[in-house]
Design a protein that fits this description.
The chain is mainly β. Helices cover 0% and strands 50% of the residues.
């Protein structure tokens, strides 16, 4: 069983920055594709960004491209999401996700989820 523990959420003003972190309780971390999703109240959970097991490939949703950066440190078994130029529409609960042996393409092929961390961007 893989446990994912998130941190770094909070309240920021529009235009500000936050860095989210996800710590994974697994030694073979470099075998897992990782991703960030988010879910606003009353909305479907949506894809934000993904990173391949080695960290060599990343992909972003159009809504966060050029503002967010996903990264991972396989030695520390952590994944991060650097969020810059935040907008009120970025307000959501952010979830980290893991998939054994593959990239994450959507909610349907996620093996493990974190508990979520709240990000609130004020205008």
């Amino acid at each position: 069983q893989v446990q994912l523990v998130e941190s770094g959420g909070g309240l920021v003003q529009a235009g500000g920055s936050l860095r989210l972190s996800c710590a994974a309780s697994v030694r073979t971390f470099n075998s897992y594709g990782m991703a960030w999703f988010r879910q606003a109240p009353g909305k479907e959970r949506e894809f934000v960004a993904r990173i391949s097991p080695s960290g060599g490939n990343t992909y972003y949703s159009d809504s966060v491209k050029d503002r967010f950066t996903i990264s991972r440190d396989n030695a520390k078994t952590t994944m991060s999401l650097q969020m810059n130029s935040l907008k009120p529409e970025d307000t959501a609960v952010y979830y980290c996700a893991a998939r054994l042996g593959d990239n994450i393409y959507g909610t349907g092929n996620v093996d493990y989820w974190g508990q979520g961390t709240q990000v609130t961007v004020s205008s």
